[in-house]
Amino acid sequence: MISGFLFHIGRYILLIRQVFKRPEKQSIYFRQILIEIENLGLDSLAIVAFVSVFMGAVLCIQMAFNMDTPLIPLYTIGFATRQSVVLEFSPTIISLILAGKVGSRISSEIGTMRVTEQIDALEIMGINPTTYLIFPKIVASMFINPILIMLSMILAVAGGWLAGSLTGLVPSSEYVYGIKAFFEVYDIYYALIKSVVFAFLIVSISGYHGFYTKGGALEVGAASTKGVVHSTMAIIVFNLILTKLLLA
Amino acid sequence: MIEASNVSKSFGDHLVLDGISVKFETGKCNLIIGQSGSGKTVLMKCLVGLYEIDNGRVMYDDRIFSRMSFDEMKVIRQELGMLFQGGALFDSMTVEENIVFPLSMFTNQSPEEKRERANFCLSKVNLENVNKLRPAEISGGMKKRVAIARAIAMNPKYLFCDEPNSGLDPHTANVIDNLISELTKEYNMTTVINTHDMNSVIEIGDKISYIYKGKLWWEGNKDTILESDNPELNEFVFATELTRKLKQK
């Protein structure tokens, strides 16, 4: 099992080295990056927005439920909701959702290209398939994911405000005061650094599993599952590492 | 000319190619034939560098291809076209985009020049008005023809075809065979075709190499293959009633 793990780590590192080789023609790659920004980022906008609003709403209600004491000021609900959203929920939970949505798409797309010999066709043309297929996806995700995460933060905080106001658990003025209280810009940097690292992990790990797919339709499905599972595990592990490095 | 000298390839303990030495001549359709599992696809993938060979060498004219790095291979690969068994057209692109893709990658041609080239290549394979269709919207035979058009877009010196008429009806298979043969003669390419279709062998086999259990077992051409007394070759060639009747005549 350990030798298998080391084998995959070694092959993954070699693949990443190949991915960052000089592209054949930069204008083509620039166009590919724009296409991938649409495929991987803009197409995820709806799910990110939907999850964020409801996540923020639930967070606010839970905070209100747990702080039901006159000793804690009501604005703490807004403050705690914002902190939870900015530090953890938006960067990590949204990245986990993107690992499922984007990761499975990347693994199955590249895996299908492998089993239908499209990757061989690229190689025969003298094109580095790893650079052509994975590099634009990495760049696009590392660019668009932080924007999605920022959007998620705004929508989650707004969702919390909506839930708090509509249920009467926290007055609007208290919530707004809370979300502005003790604001540290570094928290945003921390969240964005995490989202960039998670974006790299999602695309590179899913791309790795797709690229080394062997067999047919069944194996493409298996590669897609592995891509999602392994990128999810990597996000969880790196979440801990980054939190220790950046906050502790 | 492409030359393989003493090429061997194993997967784990399984020896697939056992010291194969063969020459593929310029301006001819060089056929690699053999039963399923005999190693002909592996040989072709070794020739184009998709598999790294264990022993021996592969030469393109005077250049030792098998000892080149990926970047060095790029030069030869731009002189090489390949038709894959399933076509291997890029699903996300239209027919025209598939054909102009290598041109966009390796030339500085204007969009008009590339479109003209795509139309020229499509006319060579007798296709028109399919430019904007996607691979999923065209038939199997059309896919093969588009794949040939893509393979010749860069004016290749070497053309590889992996089972070009598998899964096609006899008429379309014949059209594809003749197309490859005509293009080979017209552009003086070194064409290597991997097939187990006896009709192709008899139609276009300028040079035929029979692979048996990973070894080069017999060499000849379409005129000599039916006269051979090699028992393993005859077992392959006369496996069907049609070829047996052909021999009787």
Please give a quick description of this structure.
Chain A contains nine helices and no strands. Chain A has 248 residues and is mainly α. Chain A has one domain (31-247).
CATH topology of the largest domain in chain B: Rossmann fold
For the largest sheet of chain B, list the strands in their spatial order. 6-7-8-3-9-10
Nearest-integer average pLDDT of chain B: 90
* N-to-C CA distance of chain B: 35 Å
Instruction: Write down the domain tally of chain A.
Output: 1
Question: So how many helices of chain A?
Answer: 9
Coarse shape of chain A: elongated
Number of strands of chain B: 10
Taking Cα atoms only, what radius of gyration of chain B do you get, to the nearest Å? 18 Å
Using only C-alpha atoms, the radius of gyration of chain A works out to 21 Å
Main sheet summary of chain A: none
Oligomer: heterodimer
Overall form of chain B:
globular
Q: Which structural class do the helices and strands of chain A define?
A: mainly alpha
Reported CATH architecture of the largest domain in chain B: 3-Layer(aba) Sandwich
The proportion of residues in beta strands of chain A is under 5%
Are there runs of chain A of 5+ residues with pLDDT below 50, and where?
none
How many independent structural domains of chain B?
Answer: 2
Q: Biggest sheet of chain B, in brief? A: 6 strands, mixed
